[in-house]
Each structure stands twice: as C-alpha cells, then as structure tokens.
Design goal:
The structure is a homodimer. Helix content of chain A is about 65%, strand content about 0%. The structure holds a DNA duplex (30 and 30 nucleotides).
DNA sequence: CTACTAAGTAATCATTCGATTACCTCTTAA
DNA sequence: TTAAGAGGTAATCGAATGATTACTTAGTAG
C-alpha cells in the first residue's frame, strides 16, 4: 500500500484535487489492496480508505469495481513492459536475461504491482477479467519473443522463473525467512540475486480489520 | 467437477449415503468449484449444488467454508505428493525430472486439483490459509530436495516449470488454442509434451449463473 | 414393529458489499 | 461577486452469502 500516510484516516484538511491526480492516487491504492486481497477479496471500501476518499467516490470514478481492477491490471502491465523496454534499450543483447531478471525483481518495490498481476493470472474463468489477463500475459510473451529476441526455450525459462517468483511473493514466503531454515533455502534458490530486496519490503502489513 | 450428472438438480431419489461417502463427494465437488472460482469467489452454495446436497449440509459437515477449503488443499497436496512418490518408486533416478513433469501434467485430469492449489498459493496474506499454503509448498519443496534427491538448481527449474503450467491453466489459456496462433506457440513451449492432455480437458465449462 | 440415530433440508438471519441517490462545498471564470 | 461546474460525501438500498436453527425422514438395531 502507499508508503506515505498508510492509514489516511480521520478528516484532515482533505485538499481538493484535480480528478486526474485523485485518480492516480486511487489507482496506486487499489494496486496495493488488490495485491493483498485479490480481485474478489478486496473491497472498494478498502481501496477508498487506502486512498483517503469515500467509497462511493471510488465506484463513481471508475464505474465499477471490475473496471477499476482492469485499469490496475493495465497499469501493471504497462509498468512491466516499459521497464523491460528500458532495460532492453540500455543493455547489450548478451546478458539480457540476467538484467531482465533483476528488473523484474526490482518491480517488487512497487508494492502490489506483481501481486495484482498474479491475482489476475488466476482469474481465467472470469469472462471479462480472464480475457484481459490472457491478453496481458501474451503481450509479455510477445515482447520476449519479438522485441527482446528470446528463443522459445529461453522465453520459457524466463517466464517460468518469473512465475516462481510470483508464487513466492503471493505466498508471502519471505515472512517466514528468519524463522524457517527451509524457507531460507527455497528463497535463496528461487530468487536470482536480489533476495535482500524481497526481504526488505517489510513484513506483509496485516490490517486486522477490513 | 463431477463428470456424472453434473447438474444434480431436481429432487431425484436422493439416496441416503454414509456421511463418509457424502463427504468424499462434497470434497470432490468443492475441489472443482474452488478451482474455478477461487476460495473467496466460490460459494458454499455452488459447492452444495455441484455435490447434489443442500448448502447448510456442506457448512455443517465441515464447520465453515474456510475449513472446507483447508481440506481441499490438504487433499490436493496429498494427491500431488503421493503421485510423485509413486513415480519415484517406479522409475530409475535418471530421467526422473521428465517423469515428474509428465505426472504433474497428468494431475490436470483431476479437474480443479492444481487450480485449487494455485488459488491457495496466492492467498499468502490470509492468516490461516496463507500459513497452510506456505507449509504445503514447502512440503513439495522438501520432497524434491530430500526424497527425490534433486539438487537446488534442478529443484528450482522443476518448481518454476510447474508454476508456469499452473499459470497457463489458471489463465485458461487453452481456451484460446485454436483461435490464436501465439497461444499455440506459448502453450507448445510451456508444456513439456502432454499438450494434448491440456487441450482435451474440455473448454472451461462456464455456468452462466452462480 | 418400533424407537432411536444418522442423514439431510427448509427457512431464515445477520452481515457485507457494490452501487445509487441526493446532497454539500470548494474553486474559478466572467 | 457570483453562478456554475467539478470534487466529494453521507445515507441508504438490494442482493448475495455464510451460518444457524429447527425440523423431517430414512435406515437399522433390538
């Protein structure tokens, strides 16, 4: 969730914002909340609170919870792809996989981003979200094959590694890092360098109440 | 979901069963439903209908939706591990990875089994389900390392490949197989042989109403 | 037979949640 | 200065859902 004023509770001088800016704020908050609870599990009220606005405002601004999630998904994919494109532009072709890997793990800094993606990837049965999720995954696949010039097996390896990382994150496996030897082993294996990054995201904050 | 009398609607001579058997039936139905809609998205009523019993009966038999899901998760893990143990016992150590891979994909025959696992793996933030899911994943990891004798990198590769397959299934990517060239490419790459199996599971049946 | 137990349901309740409505109040252009 | 539009909320609604309660009825042991 937003690192600044996580619990934007109370009624501090809610400064009026241009709706574009407010929209941005809400999308960031929503990314965090959807990442933590999933599409179905998250409530528009949680998003509203995290963004410091009222629940009806969230719904009205995006039309529906579903449309809000679709925007979150879209933004997450854009962030992922644009990150990769930057990496692609700044590095030589050799060693590219390693750099992509690093960049991917770096995306964990944007709390909720990869988690929201992950949640979308499991919603294949949903008529509208499922379609969007499939198309999103395919975009990434096509980027690898066509833009980055990865071969089939190289692509498979990369995507598979990414899904393993996603799973570790989705499971909040890092929460158990210093209490469980096996977890340490697993995470060390699963994360290509950058283990420290995962660990310093802070233990998953658990809002006790919805 | 159950292949026989999928929609056990109406009030056909509901033969009374020993509760052990009924329990089994409900667990199978629940595996399918949870696989399709996820823990939060699935309703106890959907499970009940799929099992051909009333909703209160489902809740009473398992205590709560949460406990029901935990049992589904437990069974899925047991099925996975016992399958692997069988493979392990029947084959020589060399070529083991390939056989595990096949066995894993074969598990797709048990509709909902891998999907339910996948759904659990994304619930890390849930206090009780998250813990169970982490422990479950660790069981699989430890099996690979200790029982199957996989090395670290070999284990990583295997788990990563598994997560990629899970993602393809969760996304219902195969639904698009014959309408999208890229999907064909992706699935061919992602699935080590056994592609046909994934394709013949039947297009995800979509009950239009909950 | 009969009475008891286990299998199973109908009815209904309390909550939760997304959405809608009706309203308020800043900001700003003329 | 003021009207109007944009930013924003309080109140509330209806549907969905997990759970509970109070029953009914099929087996089955004696």
């Amino acid at each position: 969730m937003s690192s600044v004023s996580a619990d934007d509770d109370g009624h501090e001088p809610i400064t009026r914002m241009k709706s574009r800016d407010r929209r941005e704020l809400i999308l960031e908050a929503a990314t965090g909340v959807f990442g933590d609870y999933g599409y179905v599990g998250a409530t528009t009220d949680q998003v509203a609170r995290a963004a410091g606005v009222s629940q009806p405002y969230v719904v009205r601004m995006f039309g529906s919870k579903e449309k809000l999630f679709l925007e979150v998904l879209r933004r997450a994919l854009d962030a992922l792809l644009s990150t990769f494109r930057t990496v692609l532009a700044e590095n030589s072709r050799t060693e590219l996989p390693r750099y992509f890997g690093r960049a991917y793990v770096d995306l964990l800094n944007d709390r909720g981003l990869l988690l929201s993606l992950m949640h979308a990837f499991v919603l294949g049965s949903d008529p509208v979200i499922g379609r969007a999720a499939r198309e999103g995954f395919l975009e990434v696949y096509e980027f690898m094959r066509n833009e980055a010039g990865f071969g089939p097996e190289q692509t498979r390896e990369f995507l598979a590694g990414g899904m393993l990382i996603n799973t570790m994150v989705g499971l909040r496996m890092s929460d158990e890092f210093d209490t469980n030897e096996t977890v340490r082993e697993l995470l060390t294996i699963a994360l290509p360098e950058k283990l420290d990054l995962l660990l310093h995201l802070g233990k998953t904050q658990r809002p006790t109440s919805k």
